[in-house]
Amino acid sequence: MSLRDELEEFISRFPVYQYAFVSPEQIRFEESVVEVCRRDCPHYNTSWSCSPAVGKVSKSRARCLNYDGVLVFSTVTQLEEGASRRERLQTKAQHEKLTGIVADHMTGLGLRPYTLSSDCCTNCVRCGFPQEYCRHPDVLYPCIESNGIVMSDLLEHCRMDYYMSDDLCLWFSLIFYEDPFTPKEDRDG
Ligand code: SF4
User: Fold this and answer.
1) Cβ of 124 below 6 Å from ligand 1
2) pLDDT, position 1
3) Quick one: CA torsion of 13, 177, 51, 88, rounded to 10 degrees?
4) Of 43, 57, 75, 107, which has the fewest CB atoms closer than 10 Å, so is most exposed?
5) Residues 12, 70 contacting (CB under 8 angstroms)
6) 143 with 50: CB under 8 angstroms?
7) Atom of ligand 1 at shortest distance to CA of 128?
8) Is 150 exposed, middle or buried (0-12, 13-18, 19+ CB in 10 A)?
9) Which tens digits make up the pLDDT trace of 13-71?
10) Number of domains in the chain
11) How many angstroms separate the CA atoms of 96 and 130, rounded?
């Protein structure tokens, strides 16, 4: 069984909505994405998972390009009618749990995963940023957009949905991994 088959078999046990495998080179990083965070996101400068704490886009890109592959996947949660941003964010817990399970499985396979997830980290009632170091760095998955990743491009490339409806929320994770098992020429995106 190939590594990809193995990972597909594993994630098929969980309520993953859509997924794809890409190479890191197929991901576009733009400073302008972080500019939107700075301008429009209430979590900007409030969490270790978000900008500017996650660091510069150029460094993030360099780090991500060191990996051999990326598993992109989404899950869906139901929202109450008129849910606030905070209520919407509270529905991310199941997605984060699943992200951790998949990342742990990849660690067990020796793939040394690096995991990014949607939106702001919600592990603590109040983030320790900036006074305290992160209390749970093992389950801190930095925000995808804070790293400058252009998700609309990536999802179009993966033929994955970006939006479903006002009462269904899509959550995304990107798990970068090393792949010592697959010849480079067979690691297509
Ligand atoms: S785990 Fe806690 S301290 Fe760390 S980023 Fe998340 S909310 Fe902040």
Assistant:
1) yes
2) 84
3) -10
4) 107
5) no
6) yes
7) 3
8) middle
9) 999 999 999 999 999 999 999 999 999 999 999 999 999 999 999 999 999 999 999 99
10) 1
11) 22
